[in-house]
Write a structure and sequence with these properties.
This protein is of the alpha+beta class. The chain contains 20 helices and 24 strands. Strand 17 and strand 18 form a beta hairpin. Bound molecules: D-xylulose. The site of D-xylulose (XUL) has 13 residues, from helix 14.
């Protein structure tokens, strides 16, 4: 019997490269953590970083669905070896890469409900998928379908207003439409279609789990405001699609109790609750504990900004999703491809590959950099259709290079954060007295870089110890869902961010006008790139 004092919560993260589990207590203190890395622990599936790129069509990037299930079998064994007492787990939830899709073969739900607890999941579910390689978020094969989605509702603006995003190739609606037109028989033989998150929940539930509102808003299919599938868009996905998808449910809903398979095989309590799983970005928002006065900035290979919004804005750049913590609120995601790789390139070129030297040079230049600004798009940027290096002086005149390494370094870092601020404000982030930034990801350990972030946004910057916010978010979803089911409120915040730097007093006088200038610069860059 799960008692109040002994209850623990299991969170899973089915991401592109690995499957992770964390077990926490009611204070979100970590009791156990285990990982299965697809490429190294499951080499038989021959993936690179967990995915396969089709040599004949490099836009097609998939992952073997059954590999994810075998990873769960392995992960459960690792948790047994770590002496986890499964009977104490009161609730389970999960997070997964967004947009990817899973196609269940006719009859799969019956198999899922009648699993033999003496055998692995992956052997029993080996023939349960009509599409053996799941399209992932990295896939970009759906240009044609994207056009159809936008045309069906009168253009990209309308699609963004209805679903939160203009059509994106990795979004699940266009992905499903591609399968139904290219492989109509396969589509017909698909009893149900899941997102990767709802697929994960289904394994624990023993039946096909519904999709939660937040992850559903990454499909170009759901009306953000009504939380219902949009009929005209649904039609583009093929016959009987409504039945195949099922109705979306509020995030953190309790879906039911754990399947007998897990009770018999691992000794879970039969009352253990399965809470709706979600996408990694919504789960990160939960894991970081941010509220409406916070901006989360993840400084990784790419830089991602998560923003709490009370109203959905219609923008062509970025994504608006349903907020996983508040059904009346929304969240925005802004993804910038040129993050750490661009910072490292600058370090290698101008600071002799040393972060110490880089920081020294960055700190030796004045804030505002005499008006010199640099934008480095080594790979084509997502929110600006451009690639290349761009340098400007105070008057907005284009230059081919700056006069010193320190000016190059500050220009590049200020350029990155000014650009992030421009798009964050455009999508509805309001910088005010109480606004704060939570920095995560690899570069968040660099205080000199965080100081520039703080100055450019005019907000204090915090960090927190727990790095895998999506995973901790999944465990928190389990806790939230469990408490909701018992009619109890949740404590708002469990994690305690640490203040790292505060903006200098006059920073807004410096950077406010620079953001304004950037509006025209971005327009010029886009026009230039169109002409090439
Ligand atoms: C978000 C997106 C990625 C994936 C990564 O739109 O495509 O962040 O969720 O797992």
């Amino acid at each position: 019997m799960v008692t109040e004092s002994s209850a623990s919560f299991l969170g899973l993260d089915l991401s592109t490269q690995q499957l992770k589990a964390v077990i926490v207590n009611e204070n979100l203190e970590i009791l156990h953590e285990e990982t299965v890395i697809f490429e190294t622990h499951l080499p038989e599936y021959r993936t690179n970083g967990g995915v396969r790129v089709n040599k004949a069509n490099p836009h097609e990037i998939t992952a073997p669905t059954i590999m994810w299930i075998k990873a769960l079998d392995l992960l459960m064994d690792k948790l047994i070896i770590a002496s986890v007492d499964f009977s104490k787990i009161a609730a389970i939830s999960g997070t997964a890469q967004q947009h990817g899709s899973v196609y269940w073969q006719n009859g799969a739900e019956k198999t899922l409900g009648n699993l033999d607890s003496s055998n692995f999941l992956h052997t029993q579910l080996a023939t349960s998928f009509s599409v053996s390689d799941s399209p992932t978020w990295m896939d970009s094969t759906t240009k044609i379908e994207c056009r159809c989605f936008e045309e069906a509702v009168g253009g990209p603006e309308n699609l963004a207003r209805i679903t939160g995003s203009r059509a994106y190739e990795r979004f699940t609606g266009p992905q499903i439409a591609r399968i139904s037109t290219h492989r109509p028989e396969t589509f017909k033989n698909s009893e149900r279609i899941s997102l990767v998150s709802s697929f994960l929940a289904s394994l624990f539930l023993g039946r096909i789990a519904p999709i939660d509102y937040s992850d559903a808003s990454g499909m170009n299919l759901m009306d953000l405001r009504t939380k219902k599938w949009h009929p005209q868009l649904l039609k583009l996905c093929g016959p009987d699609i409504e039945k195949k998808l099922g109705d979306p449910v509020p995030s953190c809903s309790c879906l039911g109790t754990i399947s007998p398979y897990f009770v018999e095989r691992y000794g879970f309590n039969e009352k253990c609750k399965v809470i709706a799983c979600s996408g990694d970005n919504p789960s990160s928002l939960i894991g970081m504990g941010i509220k409406d006065d916070w901006l989360a900035v993840s400084l990784g290979t790419s830089d991602t900004l998560l923003i709490w919004l009370s109203e959905p804005k219609t923008v062509l750049n970025g994504h608006i999703l349903c907020n996983p913590l508040d059904p009346n609120a929304y969240m925005a995601i802004l993804c910038f491809k040129n993050g750490s790789l661009a910072r490292e390139k600058i370090r290698n070129r101008y600071a002799d590959k040393s972060w110490d030297e880089f920081n020294e040079l960055l700190e030796s230049t004045p804030r505002g950099n005499f008006g010199y600004l640099g934008l480095h798009f080594d790979v084509e940027e997502i929110l600006i259709a451009a690639s290349g290096e761009f340098r400007y002086n105070k008057e907005g005149k284009k230059l081919s290079k700056f006069s010193s390494s320190e000016i190059e370094i500050r220009a590049a870092i200020e350029g990155q954060f000014l650009l992030r601020r421009l798009f964050a404000e455009e999508i509805g982030f309001k910088i005010g007295k109480g606004t704060k930034i939570l920095a995560t990801g690899g570069a968040s350990c660099n205080k000199s870089i965080l100081q520039v972030l703080s100055d450019v946004f005019g907000c204090p910057v915090y960090t927190q110890d727990n790095v895998n916010s999506a995973l901790i978010g999944a465990a928190k979803q389990a806790l939230i869902g469990f408490n909701k089911e018992r009619g109890e409120n949740n404590r708002a915040d469990y994690l305690t961010p640490k203040l790292v730097c505060e903006p200098y007093k006059n920073s807004e006088d410096m950077y406010g006008p620079m953001v304004q200038k950037l509006v025209q610069i971005v327009k010029n860059i886009e026009n230039e790139s169109k002409q090439i």
